[in-house]
Amino acid sequence: MTRPLSQLSAPGQLAAKVFETEHTDLLDLYRRASGRASSFYRRNSQGTEVLGLGVALQFVADDADDATMAELHERLSERLADVSGDTSKLRIFGWTAFDVANSRRAHAGLPDWSAYARRQLYVPQVLLRCRDGKTDAVVLAEPADVDETWAAWQETFRSTVEIPSPSATEPEVRWLDQDEFRRGVGLVTDERVAPKVVLARRAHIEAAAPIDTTTVLRRLTHAYPSCSVFALSPHAESPYPVFAGATPETLARVNDGHVETMALAGTSRNDAGQAPDLAAERALLSSQKDLDEHRFVLDMIVDALEPLCSSVAADPEPRPHRLANVSHLMTKISGELAEDVGLAEVVDALHPTPAVCGTPRDLAKRLIGEIEGFDRGLYAGAFGSMDLEGNGQFDVALRCGLIDGASALLFAGAGITADSDVDVELTETRSKFAPLLDAISKE
Ligand SMILES: C=C(O[C@@H]1C=C(C(=O)O)C=C[C@H]1O)C(=O)O
């Protein structure tokens, strides 16, 4: 079984050093480093790209240790406090699963989450950050190894890699979990087990040749420019599936005591493969069902932020947020954080919102575990990066899946309320598979 390597923190003193580099195509470096622990993000907010490679320091919460993000951040910050050199450019990467307490369920023949810690924060060995066509690199290693570590990564960046030619045949797609999804919708609409439960299902893709994640990421960046495009690989003993996608949903962005977030829930009724238009958005803005499911999210986020903030403000009305596959209702929310509150505390307070879980939260989470019968893993979890002061951005992991050789397992869900129609909800999830499905399928 593939496993995350045990807690890895270099025993001695660590040093950080910034290097100049000419590389501006981080996806090309991502391809060359394939098979190593890596995190690639292209941020929706400013088009900044970051690539973290290798692991210098990592803290993991798992079955035996259910540490919060704030606790993990504190442990890392303590460890980083005595790093020598230029630490200003260091970034902490990490993620949290949808449900950290959920027991792992693997299904034979499908990519699974066994290589992924449920919650982790780590500092990569080398972090490359490209902004406005300029890239800098910061290396974290034992002082005597810093230059050598950078030289070894540069060697990797120069390696030749074969760029696979796109497969001529379309992959096979199997739609999974439809019976469970239908049963779950019935429980909410007929038996009213909870006011809102977000139910997900999976699609399994078998391609004729190994799926090229770099090509998938380039296509996602092109088709979903307003989304955060991401690919995460854990630090594991043997080959692992890559978790990749293009998400429209920011969980929180923190900058100097200011937090920005969004309620994103409610989805246009266009068919899968048909782009949303003004008529679909007008219908969305007047759909009581969508406005209700949106309201649950907005109210919860404002309630969760209030204890952390001196002030919280939200747009007066939701507006449509258009993507290539669907439009969503979006309300922007912002706040001024109390002293000593950073991104890790905000992630702990917000995740999971009713946009991906439901309301009330604990009941919805339990119902999801009972109805879905599969491990969501990092799907509907949160991932991102932050600096040592707790500034940074975490996004909600949506429109995504695990890519494992020629096989991929995609995840998509929809908010179910008393007014849901099961066929409409199934179509909505089908539209939400489109980003990754198209990026894998298209020539
Ligand atoms: C659950 C997903 O998306 C979430 C659910 C939405 C909805 O039910 O309308 C809209 C956006 C997301 O917050 C998903 O993409 O899998």
UniProtKB/TrEMBL annotation:
<dbReference type="Pfam" id="PF00425">
    <property type="entry name" value="Chorismate_bind"/>
</dbReference>
<dbReference type="InterPro" id="IPR004561">
    <property type="entry name" value="IsoChor_synthase"/>
</dbReference>
<dbReference type="GO" id="GO:0008909">
    <property type="term" value="F:isochorismate synthase activity"/>
</dbReference>
<dbReference type="InterPro" id="IPR015890">
    <property type="entry name" value="Chorismate_C"/>
</dbReference>
<protein>
    <recommendedName>
        <fullName>isochorismate synthase</fullName>
        <ecNumber>5.4.4.2</ecNumber>
    </recommendedName>
</protein>
<dbReference type="InterPro" id="IPR005801">
    <property type="entry name" value="ADC_synthase"/>
</dbReference>
<comment type="similarity">
    <text>Belongs to the isochorismate synthase family.</text>
</comment>
<keyword id="KW-0413">Isomerase</keyword>
<feature type="domain" description="Chorismate-utilising enzyme C-terminal">
    <location>
        <begin position="195"/>
        <end position="432"/>
    </location>
</feature>
